[in-house]
Design a protein that fits this description.
Mean pLDDT: 81
Largest sheet: 5 strands, antiparallel
Low-confidence stretches: 1-5, 340-347
Number of domains: 2
Shape: elongated
Radius of gyration: 26 Å
Structural class: alpha+beta
Distance between the termini: 53 Å
Strand content: 15-25%
Number of strands: 12
């Protein structure tokens, strides 16, 4: 069924990173003009909220960018009719599978999850770089590395001489070479560590900043608004849709997630690497879209999917119902989002 225009236009200051054509599928109630959903956040009581006020941020795509206008056009001419058709028929036309891949990929690219992921990585890297901003601290770290990894250091210095087996060098000669390395480092490290600290400071001040991360995300989105490039690997997937019961599914701000079949775990869909996986996207409270690059399993573990969506969410999830079940999912909210980069920073 063709739709002449997008009933959920988002052009302007208030820009939605989860399109209303998607969040409208999780309606708790509606009038002729307004649609409400149950909003569950990390703090505060769950509440009914107009979807106009869900997954929205002022100038999320930039003040002067044409990205929001292009997304609005796509939602009216392509993605909107696609989602409407899937919901109406509980099926995917064979001619629409590439469009499904583009839609899923566009949700990944436009969502704050990608921006938050890069921001978390930047924070972790900034923490790691902090040890290089102090020349004396860096010097001690390098000297300690020499003491802790003597064979590795010897291998680097002896390789130009054709010596590949450190064990073939008598111990007294190994100690002699290591002492010369320490003397060299002691003489040269003041200049080297000063240069490294200046470079580390520059990276922390100019590269690992919120404006820089935001610009990176907007540039990446501008280059692939339609999701065609990011969605290319998903075009080889087998896609299906299944009804799972009224009010059964929630939708997290992370959007699509995936299940790694080999590792048997869920994670946010950032890049669909070539590994056995199932991509999962609830497109309404009772309809599950899934795609896989292997034989498509039934995969109707609804409680498991909802718990994973909540754990991988950054700030909120929405649902058509507000029951004890959704409150239980809320206990998982945000549990997995920052864990990988926190661990990276600690290590």
């Amino acid at each position: 069924m063709a739709i002449a225009s997008n009933p959920f236009e988002m052009a302007g200051k208030r820009q939605h990173f989860l399109p209303r054509l998607l969040t409208s599928g999780f309606a708790s109630c509606q009038t002729t003009k307004e649609i409400y959903t149950c909003l569950f956040e990390q703090s505060g009581e769950p509440r009914q909220e107009n979807i106009v006020n869900v997954a929205v941020e002022g100038y999320f795509y930039g003040r002067e960018s044409t990205t929001d206008l292009e997304l609005t056009r796509l939602e009216g001419t392509s993605f909107g009719p696609l989602v409407h058709s899937i919901r109406a028929t509980s099926a995917i036309l064979s001619s629409s599978t590439d469009e499904v891949a583009d839609f899923v990929a566009s949700l990944v690219t436009r969502s704050p999850n990608l921006r938050e992921l890069i921001g978390d990585a930047a924070t972790a890297m900034g923490s790691a770089l902090s040890q290089y901003s102090d020349p004396e601290r860096l010097k001690r770290a390098l000297m300690r590395y020499v003491d802790d990894h003597p064979d590795e250091i010897l291998g680097l210095f002896l390789q130009p001489y054709g010596i590949t087996r450190v064990s073939s060098i008598p111990m007294n000669k190994r100690l002699y070479v290591l002492n010369r390395v320490r003397e060299f480092l002691a003489a040269e490290l003041p200049d080297l560590t000063l240069q490294a600290s200046v470079a580390a400071g520059h990276v922390r001040e100019h590269v690992m900043t919120e404006p820089a991360v935001r610009k990176w995300h907007l540039d990446a989105l501008q280059e692939d608004v339609t999701g065609t490039a990011r969605g290319a690997p998903l075009k080889s997937f087998t896609w299906a849709v299944s009804r799972v019961g009224t009010g059964a599914l929630i939708l997290g701000d992370v959007g699509p997630i995936r299940y790694l079949l080999r590792e048997q775990r869920y994670e946010a869909l950032i890049e669909p690497e070539d590994c056995p996986q199932v991509v999962i996207l609830p497109i309404s409270h009772g309809l599950l879209l899934r795609g896989s690059n292997v034989d498509l399993p039934a995969f109707n573990k609804i409680d498991e999917i909802n718990a994973a969506s909540s754990a991988l969410t950054y700030e909120f999830f929405i649902s058509s119902t507000n029951t004890a079940r959704e409150h239980a999912y809320r206990e998982h909210l945000g549990r997995e989002t920052h864990a990988i980069w926190k661990n990276a920073a600690l290590s």
